[in-house]
Amino acid sequence: MSKVFLIDVSKCNGCYNCQFACKDEHCGNDWTPYAKPQPDIGQFWMKLTEHVQGTIPKVKIHYVPHLCNHCDEPACIPVCPVEAIYKRDDGLVIIDPEKCIGCGACSDACPYDAIYRNDELGICQKCTGCAHLLDNGYKLPRCVESCPTDALRFGEKEDLLEELKGAEVRDPASGLGPNVYYKNIPGEFIAGTVYDPVEKEVIIGAKCRAVSGSKLIETVTDEFGDFWFRDLAIGKWDVMITAEGFEAKTFKDVDTEKSVNLGDIPMDRAK
């Protein structure tokens, strides 16, 4: 058996319920031998990060929950000098709070920054997958249970194989076998607004093309004169805009390392 988390970023609305629920479950509560109380501040075993793409008014925001990846081959286990970290039969990775000496070797080894040091207790701590709940008949960790949009899923990997198609993990090249999967993380975009400066009207239905090597994406401006090229691979793109009665407009080598708002684009009348 192997438990996995599946996070659909497109469903996450940034309510922070998962982060709050984790704090509520673990702050002030001693769940030894799974975990001692999480500090009120300084630790987020479930942490939501906000990602802002583009510039006003072409802005998109998405949220990504982060937690321990409960890896198949955890980097934290072999570096622990007192063998305080172990992997359960269900795949959850636990730091035994009664054995841990708080040396921080596990925190240094974790490529996901998911392990925290509790200076007051002198131990290291992280997400347990709410193992204390699972072992007492509950089916879901608090973070998953509290999600109002079902952006977070949890269960046996074998039972979620269909939903896991197309999902990705963080830093797959690490070879650690993370068991937190993400779907629908948006790529970068190029956007803009096309208008006629003479009539001071937006141009609806202008043809827009984005080309990068052999890749070609086409769209048209909407009723607001806006166009969007979404989920673009990082690279250099040539953007061409044509509209009947207007001179073509071209933007060369638009870099999508970050999302790009080309702004308000005036089109000159054809001569």
Description:
The chain is mainly beta and 271 residues long. It has two domains: 3-183, Alpha-Beta Plaits, CATH 3.30.70.20; 188-266, Immunoglobulin-like (Sandwich), CATH 2.60.40. The protein is built from six helices and 17 strands. It has helices at 17-26, 76-79, 105-109, 131-134, 142-145, 161-164, and strands spanning 3-8, 46-55, 58-67, 85-87, 93-95, 116-118, 123-125, 152-156, 180-183, 188-196, 201-202, 207-212, 215-220, 226-232, 236-242, 249-255, 260-266. The strands form six sheets. Strands 10, 11, 14 and 17 form a four-stranded mixed β-sheet that branches. A hairpin with a 2-residue loop joins strand 2 and strand 3 (58-67). It is elongated, with a radius of gyration of 24 Å. The termini are far apart.
Tell me the layout of helices and strands.
Layout: E1 3-8, H1 17-26, E2 46-55, E3 58-67, H2 76-79, E4 85-87, E5 93-95, H3 105-109, E6 116-118, E7 123-125, H4 131-134, H5 142-145, E8 152-156, H6 161-164, E9 180-183, E10 188-196, E11 201-202, E12 207-212, E13 215-220, E14 226-232, E15 236-242, E16 249-255, E17 260-266
Parallel strand pairs: 1-9, 10-17
Antiparallel strand pairs: 1-8, 2-3, 4-5, 6-7, 10-11, 10-14, 12-13, 12-15, 15-16
